[in-house]
Design goal:
With 313 residues, this protein is α+β, with helices and mostly antiparallel strands. It contains six helices and 13 strands. The strands form two sheets. Strands 1, 2, 3, 4, 5, 6, 7 and 8 form an eight-stranded antiparallel β-sheet that branches. Strands 9, 10, 11, 12 and 13 form a five-stranded antiparallel β-sheet that branches.
């Protein structure tokens, strides 16, 4: 009886060891080379996008930032958003994009694959490389997009010794429909950005009075739960600067200066670039500068709000 039980335990241990070894092989052994198949894309016209070449204070827009943001914004227009499930082996499905500046391409990859902890991926990927060309003028950056004639489907089998099913993409026609709609809607892309606007003003009152005026006329800024905290409202004087369209965090520091104060301010200013060349938020720096001056002149809240709202009508 004891001998039989010993043999059974030894067999179970041996089987468990085989499972462990097999799992290690599964997640560490490369699979076979990918099988490649090419497909003709539907004919899609080239797209011309125009963006402002400068930010609200006339600083040139960085081209790499513009291309990176455009790459991400185009991805968000897809009906097949990238998602991931699982832990030991994660499953990825959806559209991912990447910028290839060396080849002057924005690469679109529709994927349905599994990924091991070691980073090895198997499944299917449909790759569509879109060529781009950038032309910079004084006021406008023009980006031309040229969809290719061919797309490439790569199928990579499951690694190791297990014959698990290979994740498969949706029908190619559905993916082409999504990509076509994405390219046709590219001219509606909007890129959002922020920058720190700073300045200094003199005031004829004490630093404490300056801060008191900002608190009375503007009120303190309260960050939303998931909002990026550009300034620290616990240790700094951060006020709510508001116009008819925007709410901005404004940090103010006042120090004694020539019998009065010198007031330094910083604000995180948002603006938007649209692919048709139009912009929003470009009037905000002037409104903010004038608003700071009005607070230091100790205008009433009603006068201040009325002036700001008039500027944005």
């Amino acid at each position: 009886m004891n001998v039989g039980r010993f043999e059974l335990n030894r067999s179970c241990c041996a089987f468990g060891g085989l499972l462990t070894a097999a799992a290690l092989i599964l997640f560490s052994t490369p699979g076979a080379a990918a099988q490649l198949t090419q497909y003709y894309l539907p004919k899609i016209a080239a797209v011309t996008l125009k963006f402002s070449a400068v930010d609200p204070v006339r600083t040139p827009i960085d081209e790499r930032w513009l291309l990176t943001e455009l790459t991400a914004a185009l991805r968000t227009q897809s009906d097949w958003q990238l998602k991931s499930t699982g832990e030991l082996t994660s499953e990825l499905s959806g559209l991912r994009t990447r910028l290839d500046q060396e080849q002057s391409q924005i690469v679109f990859e529709y994927v349905h694959m599994a990924r091991s902890r070691t980073g090895y991926e198997w499944g299917q990927t449909l790759t569509i490389p879109v060529s781009y060309r950038v032309e910079r003028g004084n006021d406008v950056i023009t980006i031309g997009l040229w969809p290719p004639q061919m797309a490439e489907l790569a199928t990579r089998g499951t690694p190791g010794v297990f014959f698990l099913p290979t994740p498969k993409l949706r029908p190619i026609a559905e993916l082409f429909d999504d990509f076509t709609a994405l390219m046709q809607g590219a001219s509606a892309v909007k890129l959002h950005h922020t920058f720190i606007l700073g300045g200094a003003e003199d005031a004829g009152v004490s630093p404490a009075t300056c801060i008191s005026n900002f608190e009375r006329l503007l009120g303190r800024y309260a960050y939303a739960k998931d909002e990026e905290r550009v300034f620290d409202p616990k240790h700094d004087n951060v006020f709510l600067f508001r116009t008819a369209r925007d709410s901005v965090a404004l940090r103010v520091t006042a120090v004694p200066y020539r019998g009065g104060s010198e007031v330094f301010y910083e604000a995180s200013v948002p603006f938007e670039l649209r692919a048709d060349g139009t912009v929003t938020g470009y009037d905000l720096p002037l409104a903010l500068t004038q608003g700071v001056r009005q607070v230091l002149e100790n205008r009433t809240a009603l006068q201040l709000d009325g002036t700001l709202n008039t500027m944005h009508k």
